């Protein structure tokens, strides 16, 4: 988890350093942001865990005259167990495409991508078991611009992680800000 935080911080610092000269020219294609919210387990995961939470940090790039952008994201999801004394947590690193539909003040968008998800089962007093797996996400959101320097968003995405004997799926609903 420390590597996740350090990698996210370094990526954010790199984007901010590169974004400074671009902002002096008017339009800055680089973005950095954070989000948090509720995560709803579904499928196999929903039958053994309770509703949890999601926190994420992200960096993005969107050229000025195109509706398509890219976003790299590091997220952490945690769910309390219904069947044992502990929890299930799923940190992830994903690469996503964002397709925006500019429609006045509120701008809906679609987002989807794939990446590495680590499924961890923490049993209180018994240690942690974790494995890396491939997963994908797809969803949408609404951008709410509050000023010329940042925008807020509300987003929901379906995440599915392939595990050895099935899959874990969940839907985080988050509120975030992009600078």
Give a verbal description of the structure.
22% of the residues are buried. An eight-stranded antiparallel barrel has the order 1-2-3-4-5-6-7-8. The protein has a single domain, classed as Porin (Beta Barrel), CATH 2.40.160. The chain has 179 residues and is mostly beta strands. The model is unreliable at 8-24 (pLDDT under 50). The chain contains two helices and eight strands. It is elongated, with a radius of gyration of 17 Å. The longest helix has 22 residues, at 2-23. The chain is 15% helix and 63% strand.
Ordered list of secondary-structure elements with their pairings:
Elements: H1 2-23, E1 30-42, H2 43-46, E2 52-61, E3 68-80, E4 86-100, E5 107-123, E6 127-145, E7 151-163, E8 166-178
Structural descriptors:
eight-stranded antiparallel β-barrel
What would you say about this model in short?
With 179 residues, the protein is mainly beta.
- Uncertain residue ranges: 8-24
Portion of residues within helices: 10-25%
Strand proportion: over 45%
Name of the CATH class = Mainly Beta
Instruction: Give a quick account of the main beta sheet: strands, pairing sense, barrel closure.
Output: 8 strands, antiparallel, barrel
What is the chain-wise order of helices and strands?
A: HEHEEEEEEE
Structural class: mainly beta
How many individual β-strands?
8
**Strand arrangement, largest sheet?**
1-2-3-4-5-6-7-8
Determine the N-to-C terminus distance.
24 Å
The overall average pLDDT, rounded, is 87
Count of individual domains: 1
Cα Rg: 17 Å
CATH topology: Porin
Query: How many helical stretches?
Result: 2
Shape: elongated
CATH architecture: Beta Barrel
């Amino acid at each position: 988890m420390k590597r996740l935080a350090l990698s996210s911080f370094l990526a954010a610092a790199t984007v901010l350093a590169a974004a400074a000269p671009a902002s002096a020219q008017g339009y800055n294609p680089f973005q950095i942001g954070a989000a948090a919210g509720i995560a709803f387990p579904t499928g196999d995961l929903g039958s053994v865990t309770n509703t949890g939470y999601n926190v994420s940090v992200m960096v993005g790039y969107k050229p000025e005259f195109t509706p398509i952008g890219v976003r790299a994201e590091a997220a952490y999801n945690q769910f309390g167990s219904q069947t044992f004394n502990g929890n299930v947590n799923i940190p992830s690193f994903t690469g996503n495409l964002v397709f925006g539909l500019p429609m006045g003040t509120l701008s809906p968008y679609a987002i989807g991508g794939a990446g590495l998800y680590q499924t961890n089962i923490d049993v209180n007093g018994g240690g942690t078991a974790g494995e890396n797996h491939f997963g994908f996400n797809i969803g949408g959101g609404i951008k709410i611009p509050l000023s010329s320097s940042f925008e807020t968003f509300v987003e929901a995405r379906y995440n599915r992680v392939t595990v050895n004997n099935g899959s874990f799926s969940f839907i985080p609903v988050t509120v975030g800000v992009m600078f």
